[in-house]
């Protein structure tokens, strides 16, 4: 009999579950709707992957993060588990093939971006599928009270009208009580649904805020004090590069990461850091999702995040191995004004959204009602130059249009070249016999990439093929395109430019489906979250972990003892204790003679080590002394 533990060991090699994982899995296996709140690095994916492997049918995983979907699909394939992903930026033929494989081809995990859920091509397959489980990753995106609301997530509940018996597992790392209630309401959870939540407290993580007018100098000081792997978060690509160069000039092995780098460079940078060839990675918030490096000792923010949800996720990338780690914000008052300006820019009004949407339609020459689901390469700077916009304001407008499911904007889209052989093996053999020109290429494709070419799109490398054929990449590409024209293969060349996908067909700009009232409510919500971030940073009287827990609805009277506020309080209390001990020791020694043990027994101090230290200091200062039999006397006048 298979058990969750045997599945975990068979596919992942682990002998134990992390806290709450097994409870969540058992609830899912009982066909209950489940909401699971697990911190960053808490192993959310295991909670749906393990039970799905024990259930009959396909597990549909809804996720807004294309890079994370691709990564999880690759990880599952490496473990011998069939998985595919369907998302914006893919060709219709490729989507069609993936969905058919999920319906007929034994695919176990179908990852889907939320905007794909309402398309006819998906719904027709979904109605026929044997679905075991629907897993909703980043579930906070379904709530307008969340920090990353995506209206396309509201489509998930409509799937229940077709397969009402399928349980839903909603997963998130960061959700307030209001957002949790909204998730269960929007997903139409049943009465027997369960909620599992790990404490937001991180017992090994020390949260620190340091005010500094010279952040570079303070950063170096912190990196010298805290040894080990580190992440430094900054707001802009330019700053990521300049801070990395500064650290290297000062003897710190640093590299940088942002969405403007090519896929190959991003991979190289990431691997250098993961394998500790680079100690520090300086990055924008494009970095970190899906990265599982347990030994990060330090996460530093040189710029303030926009909200506590984002900060908790990014800071939580430190200390996943359970060892003492630090999350530090370097802050100066000018940062507050900078954050307010950024948040203001991130909330454009309806009229500006109309203007940007119209400019996009003009840029791509789209007719009214056309281009639903179509993707286009997009150069932000070129677009801004053409229409006389500032890049920053356009970026935020694109993100808001994305929130309202009009478009998706992927600023670091990467898809390797992919091939699918569109005919069966017998027909391919006949083609090879009749077309010697293509024979060696087809044989090499089959030798290098195998039978999977017939069943699915398979990533290939033109340069690798060219090397194997002792040819050039240009000639190989020409031959592949020729085979595509002859309808022997489907060939999708490499993509590495930012992508705009029109989720909806082109709309009339006067009637954009954006709720103006909701736009204003979202604006107020975002500013409220920004103010909570500023309050957290400025306050110096409450335990920082306690503030964080309270924000996420977790009431506690315990303090962490590790944050800068707790340590400062302990320091003050120690100073008070030392003064009181000194006075008490001097008073008693004047009254009678004591050995150290007798004196300690008389005073009964809370901290024995502190008592011994104070006695030693008083002796060194000459205020007390020992006689010949080691009794304490007042010092000589």
Describe what you observe in this structure.
- The chain has 637 residues and is an alpha/beta fold.
- The chain has 5 domains: 4-197, P-loop containing nucleotide triphosphate hydrolases (Rossmann fold, 3-Layer(aba) Sandwich); 205-331 and 540-551, Rossmann fold; 341-414 and 497-514, Arc Repressor Mutant, subunit A; 418-492; 568-634, Arc Repressor Mutant, subunit A (Orthogonal Bundle).
- Helices cover 46% and strands 14% of the residues.
- It has 25 helices and 21 strands.
- The strands form 5 sheets. The chain has a 7-stranded parallel beta sheet, sandwiched between helices. It has a 6-stranded parallel beta sheet with strand order 8-13-12-9-11-10, with helices on both faces. A 3-stranded antiparallel beta sheet has the order 14-19-15.
- α23 crosses α25 (608-620).
- The chain is elongated.
- The mean pLDDT is 92.
Short précis:
The protein has 637 residues and is of the alpha/beta class. The protein is built from 25 helices and 21 strands.
